[in-house]
From TrEMBL:
This is RNA polymerase factor sigma-54. Gene3D superfamilies: Homeodomain-like, RNA polymerase sigma-54 factor, core-binding domain. NCBIfam families: rpoN_sigma (TIGR02395). It comes from the Bacteria. Belongs to the sigma-54 factor family. InterPro entries: RNA_pol_sigma_54, RNA_pol_sigma_54_core-bd, RNA_pol_sigma_54_DNA-bd, RpoN_core-bd_sf.
């Protein structure tokens, strides 16, 4: 017979309250997301009063006293005019009747690189090609082409027979760097082929860019790092955030309200206090993390990715006495503007490569491999084995050939045989 036993047990367990969950989300927000969240809070809580930053505050306010600037920190890809609309207007001024109809139809179906689909419903091939020829009169050469080969052919003179043959019959061999086979197939000397390749490189594989305003990507850095008087300084780019205050009218009438409404006001007041506290904690957390990163990665901020040292979330968490997950949440999705470029903050964290006598991060080694390939002899491109030997002899970085191959593929760089030039 089984006896039933009643047993008490004490256990520590973290309960994720709604406010704690929201505090975690707040830490993860970018500056733009935080600004939107704050204005939503104002709508939900009548006790919150926001004072939008003045023009002077937007220019001079900073979150870290070591840095002030009058620069505009909003970095964007400049919005261009809608080129598709311009083409449609040009078409209406240039063509009439059926010609106008087919050109407008083609323009509306161009992709964002200026190419036509291979086939258009209810449009015969000869009619399609005729429309492409008309497009050449109002747009850049090659616009409306159905593939790369056609795009290049539309850009060359009709009497350039050798270049025409290279495009029609030799693009695949050229892409594969099979130069001897290419010279034999087209009956060309090395000098002739080099001259044709030079002509080919003057052509563009992308006739135009038909981007719309919706395609424009805006990048607002969350943190800005500058070199001032030879020293590195950083600032949180939070000038656009409003200052938070308690609504004066509620301070004066809260005690005069009915009891039910007083309870509501107290709840909203607690939420206001939580918001102020959470915002302060978020700023301080980001500043503490960035202070460690700035100190550890000094050479990167002066010289670029090749000088990025190994740095883990755990390293930073230990130094600032916070949990690793807090550091992870704080750096998530945030952008940092530096003297050597704009990066995601997480890109400044990189694992250490063990097979090195000196301290190198994976990111810095990737940059070294990329630079070795950029400056290699293109007639005799470096094999993965040769890259491994160069890293070992020049930088005391000892990596296997297969590791080099893996890193090269991560960089999107083809093998040596595909990089060879005449």
């Amino acid at each position: 017979m089984m006896d039933m036993i009643l047993k008490q047990q004490q256990q520590q367990k973290m309960i994720m309250t709604p406010q704690l969950q929201q505090s975690i989300e707040l830490l993860q927000y970018t500056t733009l997301e935080l600004e939107q969240f704050l204005y939503e809070q104002q709508l939900e809580n009548p006790l919150i009063d926001f004072q939008p930053p003045s023009f002077q505050e937007r220019i001079f306010r900073n979150s870290h006293s070591s840095f002030q600037t009058t620069e505009n920190d909003l970095h964007t890809i400049t919005a261009k005019p809608n080129y598709r609309e311009e083409l449609l207007q040009l078409a209406s001024l240039t063509f009439t009747g059926d010609d106008l109809q087919i050109v407008q139809f083609l323009i509306e179906h161009l992709d964002n690189k200026g190419y036509s689909p291979p086939y258009l419903s209810n449009v015969a091939d000869d009619r399609h090609y005729y429309g492409i020829q008309l497009l050449q009169q109002i747009g850049p050469a090659g616009i409306g082409a159905r593939n790369l080969q056609e795009c290049l052919l539309l850009q060359i003179e009709e009497n350039n027979d050798d270049l025409q043959r290279l495009i029609q019959k030799g693009l695949y061999l050229l892409a594969e760097r099979k130069f001897p086979e290419l010279m034999k197939s087209l009956k060309l000397s090395k000098e002739q082929l080099l001259a044709l390749i030079n002509q080919l490189q003057q052509l563009t594989p992308i006739p135009c860019t038909l981007s719309s305003v919706d395609d424009i990507e805006y990048v607002t850095p969350d943190i800005v790092v500058v070199i001032e008087d030879g020293a590195l300084q950083f600032s949180l780019n939070d000038r656009s955030l409003p200052s938070i205050q308690l609504q004066d009218s509620y301070k004066n009438i809260a005690s005069l309200l009915p009891k039910v409404e007083q309870i509501y006001v107290k709840q909203q007041y607690k939420h206001y206090e939580w918001l102020v506290h959470s915002l302060h904690r978020r700023r301080q957390t980001i500043i503490r993390i960035m202070s460690v990163v700035l100190q550890h990665q000094q050479q990167f901020f002066y010289h670029g990715l090749s000088y990025l040292k190994p740095l883990s979330l755990r390293d930073v968490a230990t130094q600032i006495e916070m949990h690793e997950s807090t550091v992870s949440r704080a750096i998530r999705n945030k952008t940092i503007l530096t003297p050597v470029g704009t990066y995601l903050w997480k890109d400044l964290f990189s694992s250490k490569i063990e097979n090195t006598q000196t301290e190198h991060s994976q990111t810095s080694i990737l940059e070294m491999i990329k630079n070795l390939i950029i400056f290699e002899n293109k007639q005799k491109p470096l094999s993965d084995q040769k890259i491994a030997e160069t890293l070992a002899s020049s930088f005391q970085i000892h990596l296997a050939r297969r590791t080099i191959s893996k890193y090269r593929e991560e960089l999107g760089i083809p093998a040596a045989s595909k990089r060879k030039e005449l």
